[in-house]
Amino acid sequence: MPSMQTLASEARVRTPATEGPRNLLLIVIDCLRADHVSCYGYHRPTTPTLDRLAQHGVRWSYANSASCWTKPSVASLFSGQHPTAHGAVGGVKRKAAGSGATTDTLRSTAPTLAEDLSARGWRCAALMNNVQLGSFTGLDRGFHVYESQLGKADHIIEAFCDWVRDQTHHPWFVYLHLLEAHWPYKPRRRHVRMFGGDRDSNVFRDFSGRDFGRLRQAVSRRELALTCEQITHMVQLYDGAIRRLDGKIKKILGILEERGQRDATQIVVTADHGEEFLEHGRIGHGQSLYEELIHVPLVTCGPGSPSGIVIEEPVSHVDLGHTMVKCVSGETSMPGRDLYSPNSASAPVLAEVKTAARYRQSLREGPWKIHRTYELNGNAGQPPTLVAAAVGPIHAKRVELYNLSVDPGEQNDLSEKLEFSDIRAKLTSKLTDLSQQTAAEGSDDRPATIELDDCVVRRLRDLGYLE
Ligand SMILES: [Zn+2]
Fold first, then answer.
1. Helices (DSSP H) in 102-227: which residue ranges?
2. Strand 123-128 relative to strand 145-147, pairing
């Protein structure tokens, strides 16, 4: 019996050539980790619609986001570059007390998916609800319509329906970003009940997003230990929110059906990052690069792509822009490789995150994954390209090595085991090379930062990103 990988390779060969322009619909569910999606093996029926889509399209078993929080991750999806290269890598930096905040934005020379498609005649719209993706980030480049704060999913879907109705003369690209699986999770009561919980339980009484920021910090600093009951409740709310969002995907696909555009549209569903529930001592996201944070679902379906296939090869979001533009238009100037091509050699998968205190990297190749953590020691304001160019095996404060084929939860660090020293050395060398290459890609332009207005700062605080 042929292996899954063989089947995948054969299916890639059978992929039909692109026949004329097609629409592209990219749906990103904020915070959706792969192992809470039913077709990725989750024990709860969280995603019946996504499961059906995967049955008719391609399910990528090991897709990684390029970072573990919204802005750098989505910027990698849009630019085909790693966070260090595209520059939208750092979080919000508070200026002196009471005088506002700044944040990094996309480098002006970074390519974007929407610019590439616009130049080829596509009409492009981004319809979202995440203040992290405001036009101040520079991510709006190439879009004809860019709305980052449309509110709940139903408003986004309404806007999608209205906008698509008007696109009668051109192929289109729509980016939809849904926030309901982000804390404070917003499930329906019946969906939480379906998973054995009670939405209105007072386990987290009166916790708003702002409170979650404090809760997350207290847990991370080990000032507060969450009970099993609290974590169980949190996961029930999260799963309920995923189930609710799955219904929204059904609604979106229904709109395409009604308009007779389903067969002319390449559909991509993925997440910008995952969410952690104490697997490595933290909750939320944005701090580290363990699988619960960067292993995301990726399902593609539509004309020009294979049907009913599972691809086991680890892939990165940085190649998705290239793959999708090529799939819908036949050509692309986006960096990266064509994930559908049978001749596309597999590549190690890099992820990065830069917080105020640390810079972390991870590299996956086959079943092996290495992590390196660097202390920034007061240099958090340094341009990301300089930080990434300067790192090497010697300066890392901590190195970890995991074999994901036997330890998918990254609990058994093998970095100090003598028998794995060759693997550690090989991955270390690849990570250093890739890190310097990524830094060089972004060094042709100054990283940009922008001052945030009070309204944006308030909204970020409401999502739990600022004290
Ligand atoms: Zn996010």
1. 113-119, 153-165, 189-194, 209-220
2. parallel
Domain ranges in the chain are 22-340+452-462
| Centroid of ligand 1 to alpha carbon of 105 (angstroms) | 16
Cα-to-centroid distance, 16 and ligand 1 (Å): 34
Interhelix angle 454-462/209-220, rounded to 10 degrees, is 60
| Cα 222 to ligand 1 centroid, rounded to whole Å | 24
Token output for 303: 């004309």
Cα 250 from Cα 245, distance rounded (Å): 9
**Tokens in use for 397?**
């404060």
Cα 31 to ligand 1 centre (Å): 5
- Partner residues linked to 64 by β-bridges: 295, 316
Distance in angstroms between the alpha carbons of the first and the last residue of the chain: 56
Q: Which helix H or strand E contains 461, and what residues bound it?
A: helix 454-462
Q: Distance from the CA of 345 to the center of ligand 1, in angstroms?
A: 29
Residue 444 banded pLDDT, cuts 50, 70, 90: low
Check: CATH 3.40.720.10 for 22-340+452-462?
Answer: yes
| Helix, strand or coil, per DSSP, at residue 146 | strand
Residue 415 tokens, joined: 């970095």
Look at the block and give the residue holding tokens 């330890």.
407
CA 13 / ligand 1 centre spacing (Å): 34
Contacts for 58 with CB less than 8 Å, ≥ 6 apart:
299, 300, 301, 305, 306, 307, 309, 310, 311
CA distance 14 to 374: 45
- Distance (Å) of CA 219 to CA 276, 280, 290, 411: 12, 11, 17, 19
Range list of β-strands (E), 271-342: 276-277, 283-284, 295-296, 298-301, 309-311, 315-316
Condensed to tens digits (0 to 9), the pLDDT of residues 64-79 reads 999 999 999 999 999 9
- Tell me 289's DSSP state: -
Rounded to the nearest angstrom, the distance between the alpha carbon of 272 and the centre of ligand 1 is 5
**Would you say residue 305 has pLDDT above 90?**
no
In one-letter notation, the amino acid at residue 275 is E
Residue 365 carries which side chain, given as an amino acid letter?
Answer: E
Angle, nearest 10°, between helix axes 70-79 and 320-329? Answer: 40
Q: State the alpha helices, DSSP H only, in 128-201.
A: 153-165, 189-194
Summarize pLDDT for 389-424 with one digit per residue, the tens: 777 777 888 999 999 999 999 999 999 999 999 999
Q: What CA–CA distance (Å, rounded) separates 198 from 150?
A: 28
Cβ partners under 8 Å of residue 3, min gap 6? none
**CA 99 – ligand 1 centroid, Å:** 26
Do 144 and 172 contact (CB within 8 A), yes or no? no
